[in-house]
Amino acid sequence: MSVPPPTAGKATKPASLLGDLGPRVLSAIAMIAAALAALYQGGFVFVAFWTVASVAVHWEWQRITGGPQPQLRVMGGGLAIALAGGLMAVGQRDASLVVLALTALTVFAFVPGPTRLWNAMGILYAGALLLSVTVLRLSILSGLESILWLFAIVWGTDIMAYFGGRLMGGPKLWPRVSPSKTWSGFLIGVGSGATLGLLALLALGGAVEPVPVVVLGLVTGALSQGGDLLESSIKRHYGIKDSSHLIPGHGGAMDRLDGFIAAAVFAAIFGTLHAGAAAAAHGLFVW
Predict the structure, then answer these.
(1) Which of 138, 173, 204 is the last residue of a domain?
(2) pLDDT tens, per residue, the chain with 287 residues
(3) 20 to 30 A Cα–Cα from 213, which one of 62, 111, 119, 167?
(4) 186 closest CA partner among 168, 211, 209, 206
């Protein structure tokens, strides 16, 4: 009987980790490339990209929350989001909002049982992503800059919060919801995200006022972490780890976009209140 070499059993785990790392890295590269390409193209391509993403988020939300009337919940909500995207592409912001609100009310009214509020909220959650990013990108000024700024903040916050927390450790941020998040990671991530957001704007050659933009970036980064915690609490409530398995190595669309949704919604509301919906992106940077 042959005896396996001492290292044979040790090679299994690294191989497994590397096997998982490959799809994860490739998926991340593909998602970033697609998001940046859609951003650069703008117009219909951008709206279509985020409509698909929002429909995926809605499908995952309905999958998580469950409940009766799946056709009304999943198909009806998905069609409403697609229609809202088409209306946004032709500049009908108010009509898009009405479509989403009426569909959510319809689901709440006709889906029986205790899940109906959660089901209706899923349409608004996914719809908020679509409306916020399209309001910003289709803004008459600074549309592309606003989304790049959001990307820099959310990606920078997420990445640096992970590595900062691992490096510094310390007290947990909210252990009952997310056992791995620490206050050190949160602070390092938010500070890094705000800084990267400012650097992205400066790299684009924009004339910005650094202090207000950094302060706004800090708030946006903090809210992106809040969006991550919100999704974690929902998944924990329903006893699941990933929202779906749509993205190899990353889980689902909600898992990747939870922080971005919160940041984008805040940015769209802030910019709209400051400069109006037609110039929402401009309202983020001009004080």
Answers:
(1) 138
(2) 333 444 333 334 444 444 556 777 788 899 999 999 999 999 999 999 999 999 999 999 999 999 999 989 999 999 999 999 999 999 999 999 999 999 999 999 999 999 999 999 999 999 999 999 999 999 999 999 999 999 999 999 999 999 999 889 899 998 888 888 999 999 999 999 999 999 999 999 877 889 999 999 999 999 999 999 999 999 998 999 889 988 877 789 999 999 999 999 999 999 999 999 999 999 999 87
(3) 167
(4) 168
Domain span including residue 236: 141-287
Co-location of 71 and 195 in the same domain: no
Question: How far apart (Å, rounded) are the C-alpha atoms in residues 284 and 281?
Answer: 5
Residue for token digits 């989304």? Answer: 147
CB 27 within 8 A of CB 248: yes
- 155 Cβ contact list (under 8 Å, min separation 6): 193, 196
The reply to whether 4 falls in a domain is no
DSSP state of 74: I
Query: Shortest CA distance to 133 belongs to which of 144, 124, 122, 120?
Result: 144
Residue with token string 């207000």 = 212
Instruction: Check: CB of residue 222 under 8 Å from CB of residue 1.
Output: no
130 burial class (0-12, 13-18, 19+ CB within 10 angstroms)?
buried
286 and 184 both lie in a single domain? yes
Work out the number of other CB atoms within 10 angstroms of the CB of residue 232: 19
